[in-house]
Amino acid sequence: MTAIPAPKGLEVAYVLGTTAGGTGRHVAMLAAGCAARGVAVTVYGPGDTEKRFFRDREVSAAVSDADPPRSRTFVRVEIAARPRPARDTAAVLRLRRLLLGSSPDVVHAHGLRAGAIAALALAGAPGRRSALLVTVHNAPPAAGVTGAVYALLERIVARRADAVASVSADLAERMRRRGARDGGRALVPAPPAPAPSADEVAGVRQELGAVDRPVVLAVGRLAAQKGFGTLLAAAGRWQRHDPVPLLVIAGEGPLADALHLQARSAGLAVRFLGPRSDIPALLAAATVVVVASSWEGQPLIVQEALRAGRPLVATRVGGIPDLTGEDGAVLVPPGDAERLASAVRSVLDDPERREKLAAAALARAAALPDEMAAIEAALAIYVQIAAAVA
After folding, report:
1. Under CATH, which number does the domain 198-366 receive?
2. Would you place residue 140 in the very low, low, confident or very high pLDDT band (cuts 50, 70, 90)?
């Protein structure tokens, strides 16, 4: 596909909060891709997000409120990961001042918190109005005070955004019920990665101590959403398999200590690797890849496993079935350790099934959108909503 230049003079402001994963990578990809097509891009977000995802000095050079926007600029606005009334009010006021000073054609906010803060910052703004697009990346908490807060954020976004894009069909339906104007499906592709060499794969298996053992691989942030507790409970049910599979978990997060304790208490054969930069080699070394999440949108690890042609067991939640289809993975209910363990054992015990799953994974991967498709889709909605409010 040939890149299509953006309309001349288009200005886009991205707004995002504190993030440690796919949302930050996604916004960095959109910002770089749109800037390469001639869009004047400014990213507004916390300093921690800047350090993680916007290290290119042309992208991340912070400017004062009085500076004019450049082609690719990061301006710090501290949007916290959790609701903090005083800090959130300060973020709204700072973002309002910045957006009034630059008047972008489109403000594209990512996540409900950033979306609500952007909506409030733009409310009642004098002069030329910026169009507001919000991409919803995650399902909100369902209960308690936090759930009530996020329900309020959903209503603010639904009522004030010119369009709301979602990463999965269930989120799109949820926002439609809130009254949101549908901005279509947001495309969140995994970044391209070179295939590992045979020596790299052999080195990983040797490092893991799994030269003659099956490897069950899971990758993700060690947080409640990812279902690692269920995965460890499932691992306890395959300890009598011969040979005992080695469970390998790559990632870091707030539940690291609790998961280590759970694994030790159960006497499980598991390796916690922490954050890794060699995910393609780990995937190639895996006998089966497992995603046990309680909810996902378009998870990068599922896309990466499909591209690597690895047998995949995953939960039937969010956007996962849209990525895998019914043949690209064994899909199980979330939170069910017994069903998860049974699915993993069925793949480990059946070489022919592993081959079929691997072939189906590669076929599904061939149909996945790439970064260029995501950038073109974003530009199309920018042009549409900017014209609608002009």
Report:
1. 3.40.50.2000
2. confident
